[in-house]
Amino acid sequence: MQVIEKHVGSVLVVRFDNSPVNALTVGGGLVQAIERRVAQAQTDERVDAIILTGGGTVFSAGADIADFEGAPERIDAIRSLMQSIENCRKPVVAAIEGLCLGGGLELALAAHFRVASSTAKFGFPEISLGLLPGGGGTQRSPRLAGAGNAIDLMLSGKSVSAAKALEIGLIDRIAEGDVVEAALAMLAAGLVGSTRRSGSLPVPQDLDAAIDSAERRTGLTDAGRAIIACVRAIAQTDLQAGLKLEAEQFGALMTSEQSRALRHAFFGRRIVGKIPGGVRVESKGVRHVTVVGGGLMGTGIAISLLNADLGVTVVEAKPEGFDKCRASIEASLRRDADKARITAATADRRIGALNMGRSIDEAMPSDLYIEAVFEDMDAKREVFQALDRIAPLGAILASNTSTLDLDAIAQFTSRPEAVVGLHFFSPANIMRLLEVVRGARTSPETLASAMAFAKSIGKTGVVAGVCDGFIGNRIFEEYLRQAWFLLEEGALPHQIDAALEAFGMAMGPCRVMDLAGQDIGWNIRKRRAVEQPDRPYSKIPDLVCELGRFGQKTGTGFYLYPDGRTPQRDPLIEALIVSHSRQIDFDRRVIDDSEIVERCIFAMINEGAKLVGEGIAYRPVDVDIIYLDGYGFPASRGGPMFHADQVGLPHLLEKMAQYARGHHGWAWEPAPLILELSDKNQKFGDLNR
Ligand code: 3H9
Question: ipTM score here?
Answer without folding.
Answer: 0.98
